[in-house]
Specification:
This protein is α+β, with helices and mostly antiparallel strands. Helix content is 55%, strand content 16%. About 1% of the residues have low confidence.
Length: 785
């Protein structure tokens, strides 16, 4: 043996069982960091995919710049792609048509379709000639147009024939509006624009898209462009969603999110340090005899400190790779779930994605926390005197100078509490470890409220398809709804009738009322989702045919209460209930009232629908959708399937990671608590043997260990609440209140869940060490290593 350090691998082999608990603790800490940072990285990737899919792969657009300025900007070293873009009838307000479909016209350069738009060309090629255009692919089904066909593009002033050179992906907007987008080269667009509007296309009619290179400082580049070309803030539009995810947003709200991410990183780091430090502290406490023997053979204090640190790093050889591997596996599981739930959003995300940042964070934080956590135990080991080598753990340096007074507490319980608090440093580490688990759980639970505000989940009444009367009259025959409900691929059909701008008076105040009919499905959703204030009042409205019972839709300025009578031109209406959720937007000064179909017919004499909503079965084919579309002739047909999938995919992806974070933290908390309790018992096992030798029963010993565990749990829960609630308030205030104005309330459900987990885990942790002591003889317990 050349040095004391040669004992490290020998000690690791001999103390393999005792070291296993410390190694497990390091694995858990590395797993926690790797899993959370890998999941965060995957969430950022998924949100970036979503942002590009929704808004395009561009960073800024510039308005009112010259061709010369555009050429100079495109030549910059930090610009990857740039291109002109212009649009006509984007809001679909003017009479531009291809066939029967309203049409928006876009003038583009090839980089827009190949690099800026998320899906680009799905079939065919970019139009090269003046008589060629591209169409969104919904034109294939709705207008039966194929590649190479000639189409007539009608304008308010003229008509022009084009050849279809390709198709681009449909958007949620085009499908929902039942419209088509025609894309043509900028030269063709310039000529077409001049003929259609009788004005020349100016630079002010176009915007210039800019996509920067991956690793450039986008914020700095934008500032340089603005200064160099004297651009105002109004001339620069930013893709805030994409820039925010990439970390280049200057928005105050996004800066607040970055700050919150730093707070969470700090909490995860501290949690890892406390977990490992508590474990190593217990490990050193079990081996006072070993360190005393080293001192007897001439080891100095500095050598002992170095020995403990290198021993801790030696554990990292197996603990860190295992923890990193666990984090990677969790990430793979989440990525595969995300691909399954996210549809087209995340179809390109690899299942076996590797997060370099997450792995690096796990390794760095693992080594850093081990070195930081080893400081205190190393100094503690160095203080062990050679004399301690003779007595070992049986002689404690922390001898009580006073006898323990049990009072009204039984002696075994009192001894357990005393064991817990006797070593102040160990008590602080254990309580801190428990408290950080609670704090982390509460911190991440604030993202649930943020998620429910930022991404609205689909409501039960959200349709896949809608047939709408263009003039908002009740002109859709009820028989059409009955016919569609019997068609293949249709899950549910429900219609509504509308009566607009009805003069009304309530409590002497004049109002305008919109009356809407509901059928059974829509009334059932109000009941099932608990949107109703009074179920009896709801039932009255459902069954009413001629009494005038209606339901009012809640809004912040509502001036109608349950029980109010409203005098209208249709008759007197009685408000029997107020509902919190309806799928309609109201105008200022307007009240929305909901009634049964029977009452609507009695009041208006009309039995037809204004809109029919259709929900489809899973796996419905395009042929089945086209069959429904063919029945909508004369009405507007709205296909919302893409927007529904986008909403569902976005919500599921965010929910997956938020609840994934919470599940990992809860799991780590349980394992950490059980491991910490087990190590604490192992550190005192000789003392327990001595107590059994003087007459303490196994039952009393179990009560003592339970009291010690509960002391840690109760104190940890109290400290966790004291720290965790302000952290939750800080995060909630920055994430939710600053954006949506919701006031903070105590997160009682999250608090109850994590405290129950802590307490139950602490009690359950007593079982294994108690069983181990019970199966050992008194002499074996006293001489246990």
């Amino acid at each position: 043996m050349k040095s004391y350090l040669s004992l490290i691998p020998i000690s690791a082999k001999i103390k393999k069982k005792q070291n296993k608990m410390t190694i497990i603790c390091i694995i858990l800490a590395v797993f926690l960091v790797t899993a959370i940072f890998s999941m965060a990285d995957m969430e950022l990737r998924s949100q970036k995919i979503r942002a590009i899919s929704d808004y395009g792969n561009w960073h800024i657009t510039l308005k009112n710049i010259s061709e010369n300025d555009a050429e100079q900007i495109s030549a910059r070293d930090d610009v990857k792609v740039s291109s002109w873009y212009a649009s006509l009838n984007y809001r679909l307000k003017d009479d531009y048509y291809i066939g029967t479909k309203r049409t928006a016209i876009c003038g583009i350069e090839e980089p827009v379709i190949t690099d800026i738009l998320s899906d680009g060309i799905t079939e065919g090629k970019y139009p090269k000639n003046n008589n060629e255009i591209m169409l969104t692919e919904n034109a294939k089904d709705s207008l039966n147009i194929n590649l190479g066909d000639s189409v007539s593009l009608k304008t308010p002033r003229s008509e022009e024939i084009f050849t279809v050179s390709g198709f681009s992906a449909s958007t949620a907007m085009t499908n929902k509006a039942d419209a088509v987008v025609a894309l043509m080269p900028l030269d063709t667009y310039s000529r077409f624009y001049s003929e259609a509007t009788e004005t020349a296309l100016e630079d002010s009619d176009k915007v210039y898209y800019v996509q920067f290179k991956e690793r450039c400082n986008i914020k700095k580049a934008i500032a340089q462009i603005q200064k160099q070309y004297s651009l105002t803030d109004e001339q620069i539009s930013k893709n805030s969603a994409l820039l925010g995810i990439m970390g280049f947003s200057t928005d105050s709200y996004m800066l607040g999110l970055y700050l919150m991410a730093a707070v969470l990183f700090f909490l995860v780091l501290i949690s890892g340090i406390l977990m490992i430090s508590s474990s190593m502290n217990s490990n050193v406490a079990q081996r006072t005899k070993f360190f005393g023997m080293l001192r007897c053979t001439g080891a100095s204090k500095k050598q002992i400190i170095r020995f403990v640190r290198l021993e801790a790093l030696n554990w990292c050889k197996t603990a860190i790779p295992t923890g990193v591997l666990g984090g990677i596996i969790i990430t793979w599981i989440l990525c595969s779930i995300l691909r399954f739930l996210g549809g087209r959003y995340f179809s390109d995300m690899p299942v076996f994605a590797i997060s370099g940042g997450g792995i690096a964070a796990g390794i760095c934080v693992g080594i850093l926390t081990v070195l930081l956590a080893a400081q205190s135990p190393a100094k503690k080991a160095a203080k062990v005197s050679p004399l301690t080598a003779v007595s070992g753990n049986a002689v404690s340096s922390n001898i009580s100078r006073r006898s323990l007074t049990a009072g009204f507490i039984k002696i075994d319980t009192s001894l357990g509490i005393s064991h817990a608090v006797k070593s102040r440093k160990n008590f602080i580490l254990m309580v801190g470890s428990f408290a950080l688990s609670i704090t982390l759980f509460l911190a991440f639970s604030s993202f649930i409220a943020f998620m429910n505000h930022a991404i609205t989940p689909l409501k039960p009444y959200t349709p896949d398809l809608s047939i709408v009367c263009g003039d908002n009259s009740c002109s859709i025959d009820r028989s059409l709804a009955e016919k569609i409900s019997s068609m293949s691929g249709v899950k549910r059909v429900y219609g509504r009738s509308f009566a607009y701008d009805i003069p009304a008076e309530c409590d002497g105040k004049l109002k305008t009322v919109t009356l809407i009919s509901y059928e059974s499905n829509q009334f059932n959703w109000i009941d099932e989702e608990n949107w109703s204030e009074d179920n009896i009042g709801l039932e009255k409205a459902v069954k009413d045919t001629d009494e005038g019972y209606v339901i009012a839709a809640y809004h912040p300025e509502i001036a109608i209460n349950k029980g109010d009578k409203i005098q209208t031109g249709l008759g007197v209406l009685m408000v029997t209930d107020v509902v919190s959720q309806i799928p309609f937007n109201r105008k200022d000064g307007e009240e929305i009232l909901v009634c049964s179909e029977a009452l609507f017919k009695t009041l208006t004499g009309n039995n037809n629908y204004t809109i029919i909503d259709i929900q489809l079965e899973r796996g419905v084919t395009e042929e089945e959708v086209n069959a429904i579309r063919s029945l909508s002739e004369g009405f507007l047909f709205s296909d919302q399937r893409i927007s529904n999938r986008e909403t569902k995919g976005a919500y599921y992806s965010f929910a997956l990671f938020v609840y994934g974070f919470l599940a990992v933290i809860a799991m780590i908390a349980i394992f950490n608590i059980m491991n910490s309790i087990s190590m604490s018992v192992s550190a005192h096992i000789r003392q327990y043997g001595a107590m059994r030798a003087i007459g303490m029963s196994i039952r009393q010993l179990i009560k003592m260990i339970t009291a010690e565990a509960v002391t840690y749990a109760v104190c940890g829960s109290a400290v966790g609440c004291i720290i965790g609630l302000p952290v939750h308030y800080l995060l909630f205030n920055n994430l939710v209140t600053a954006r949506w104005g919701d006031t903070w309330t105590i997160p009682s459900s999250s608090l109850t869940i994590i405290i129950l987990l802590v307490v139950l885990s602490s009690v359950a942790a007593v079982y294994a060490p108690s069983k181990r002591i019970q199966n050992m003889s008194v002499t074996d317990t006293i001489h246990a290593q």
